[in-house]
Amino acid sequence: MRIVLGVGGGIAAYKAAELTRLLQQSGHQVQVVMTDAAREFIQPLTFAALTGRKVITSLFSHESSDATLSSAVEHIAVAQEHDLLVVAPATADLLAKLAIGRADDFLSTLYLAFTGTVVLAPAMNTAMWTHPATQANLETLSRRGCEIVDPDDGWLACGTVGAGRLADPARIAERINSLGKTRRDFEGETFLVTAGPTQEALDPVRYISNRSSGKMGYTIAETAAKRGAKVVLVSGPVNIPAPRNVELIPVKTAHEMRQAVMEQLTDATIIVKCAAVADYYVANVSPQKLKKTAARLSLELDPTPDILAEVGQKKADRILVGFAAETQNLLEESRRKLLSKNCDMLVGNLVNQEGAGFESDQNDVEIVTRSGRTVHAGPASKYEIAERILDEIAMLRLSIRGMDRIA
Ligand code: CTP
Known about the structure:
5-stranded parallel β-sheet, single chain, binds cytidine-5'-triphosphate, disordered C terminus, alpha/beta, 8-stranded mixed β-sheet
């Protein structure tokens, strides 16, 4: 792709140099545009040396003798010649400017003239990030179709810890690469995705849960939406933001998740059950906080409803994808669950292996289908794994619905 990298004025501006390199290594052509504020943090020469191109720093090239009509309309030419605009770091000020449509420097003017994909990677102090004004601007930009690469949590230049650190350049580059491949091949489908753990209460202050982070399910929901599907995401309690363009239904317990899934089932055409649902719930939840005694405490647990198996019975011509979290015998268990729960496809992963499974940004999976197909995917980022799973679902859909048509 031909990419314009807009660099905003924040401490993280230096990371844009690494992003430039990563984009070039992925085969993209990069043109850098810097705001005045960005030049307070990093010299244009750094980007000129990396890209071998003149860095655009102002709307009017007063300095040059060719201050002609063509330089006055350079933003239009740059907008027309490029496929994607990424702004990293996107400061709070830049987000505000883009949201209200100001055009008082090259980058904001370019944004207004740009008709291709826009990716924004915000970076700022936590209080500025969480401020309703910033969030409202993001909401506006996202509704307008901008892709937002949310910032990471961590140490910030202001000496505090929290959300607001520019996303790792590798994550931004990966998101751009996945956008380059985006097809809208799931337009017309309604995905019902479940994600995260469930929490089963013991008493009003305690619960039993598991280590599922929700990342895999959220990435599948996000990817399906990007590929054109309407997506409903039923999620247990997690610490990650809801993907944009996805309807989120938050639940806590396995019973609540079952109810939400059953309510959404009618409209769904493809169901992906990624959630790590508790297999048991506490039979006698104490209405008051349990008090500590010297005696052993036993809990009575009853089995929860198996939501996947129930959907398997009711699925009709819907495509049903289950997951299996295993610590051993991955393929055997995945095939057993595929058949016993009447799924069309099952994605198995070993959750006790380094760099995969719960909490990790990576995953490594075996995908098995009813037709006997087995595909290994990974180790790779959860974004790449989500794309692979959706590619397999697309193939499965073709074989199932294609065969229907012939019949
Ligand atoms: N699942 C479900 N409802 C449950 C338990 C599991 O819908 N009460 C779904 C999960 O969302 C997942 C699949 O079943 O898609 C497999 O979950 P997993 O925990 O691996 O398997 P279990 O059937 O619970 O078997 P086991 O715990 O014995 O491995």
